[in-house]
């Protein structure tokens, strides 16, 4: 039956060349959603076979069915919660008292609880059957693999290429942009996005996000207007952002009430899985629902593609609202919002001072003027859930990581306060940008690119260090090595002009900047492929370095240098010096005191460093890290093609290079900065220079469709991985 429905779905697809409706309008209005996992799997099979139109139809319907399934669950949950007969008794919603007797107390609450649960289940079953067809939600149950794929927006990655093949460039750009927003470090999509922007048939308005919750757009618009001192214009956007945030919170909380197996893909909370009978199972499932609901605070505050939520998201919105209302003279609304801030932080001095100022300006007191009702409801409900979770921690041995900094200390049981305080002191690094979460994020994102984290800071015996492998293929390493060789053969050395290394008389040192490479390519002295690759690889390293070390603060390239060190034959016997002495990149290292002075002549604006190696066919030349005394080696890394060593540039990472005693060692050295005023201007000039040649070539290529109406397809290189458990194949495509 499902196969027949999907066949009918294909027949609904517009014929080739017909106009496509904007966005993703339903193909079959009013029809109940079909199984998203089957639709998605069939869509990937059609995609892999090059059947672009069926692939688009199936992938689009998989997206719609998944969205319809979520809406049905949320709507049914809300309507059934409003049914008086299916509502939980009010006396059961608070945290239980540890000293509760048996007999009459048990007889009073047990029938009430079970009767309400049975009626709620009956209501939900009937509602979902009406919305989703026979079998309801059980028929369309989705596994964790598909949920993860939809969360990462993988369908849009396939859709963008299929639309490209169908010559629907506006929809291809929208799908690509939608995927890229949630996967900003996906290097292939970054390149594809750049190519879409250069296509004559794609307009700026085509780059629209089809998935991001609307409260983020209102939030960003409001902030931008506030920066331009347009408080009156900002207010509607700020209010829309707050209302949208609360609405998205309700959607997230509703999703937490899905089938129990829906939680399996998530990180299990310690002790949450029940091992006992009926009541232990009920308690275990309820605890997981509460934990999920509490995580919704962080979920709605985390932008797509980001690893960390915006700090104190809801209180910060209320602060901006009361300030904006006060700025335009809406004192009553300003008081409502500042009182709402005080619900989160009753001792906030700035909020108390602002309240006193608004009340003085308002004059006579206004009866009924208090905090916002929606914020009061949110806080009371959240505190009630926290009480139950802390009770479970204390008496059932479960765990709970409170996402909110505003939780009152009095709400935490006394028996837990000391333990939580000790845990916080042991993990003081929680206040710093944490490392474990970016590592998980890297595993999710970078494995798709073939990049692996080989060693982290702990394995390298230091802080803010990492070794990544797979950033370059052997072919790409060969292209860059040839570029360095051709540039040196032409006598073009930039950075260091002498034949001898500035660090040792026993080695030759050759350096090439990105601008010099672009100039040589423009003159025909070296191949343009190598110069372009040098530019692309430097941006690739910057993107990955930012994603790993600084996901919330943009990094800029400050200097890029392709360097080769060659051992001078006959001068290596009994050699005692280093290829590069121990140093730090943004401060002057004093080994005697262990201090590193961040002052000239050091490049004090450098914040992170990277070394991307191109070869390993030489002796010596390993990178090593030391303690601040510049003597005790703490870690050593052997160069190899495509290996990146990235680290912070300060005194916490003194490093040097062992002598190169035979052969030629080449690497791309990169330094990054948080300061935009120190970004590498030569990189921009090199990019513009290479784009001039590229645009001339593209102008010639754009004449080709007149002779052949089909666009040049993306690379057909596909990497298919078929999981033994029947998971859909993962396909990597390139434009």
From TrEMBL:
Assigned GO CC terms: catalytic complex; endoplasmic reticulum
Keyword Repeat: yes
Biased composition range(s): Acidic residues: 257-270, 691-703
Basic and acidic residues bias: start-end ranges: 681-690, 720-735
Top class in the EC scheme: oxidoreductase
SMART domains: P4Hc
Glycoprotein listed as a keyword: yes
Catalysed reactions, semicolon-separated: L-prolyl-[collagen] + 2-oxoglutarate + O2 = trans-3-hydroxy-L-prolyl-[collagen] + succinate + CO2
Stretch list, region Disordered: 252-274, 681-735
Domain Fe2OG dioxygenase: 560-674
Keywords: Dioxygenase, Endoplasmic reticulum, Glycoprotein, Iron, Metal-binding, Oxidoreductase, Repeat, Signal, TPR repeat, Vitamin C
Family label: Belongs to the leprecan family.
UniProt protein name: procollagen-proline 3-dioxygenase
UniProt organism field: Sciurus vulgaris
Gene that encodes it: P3H3
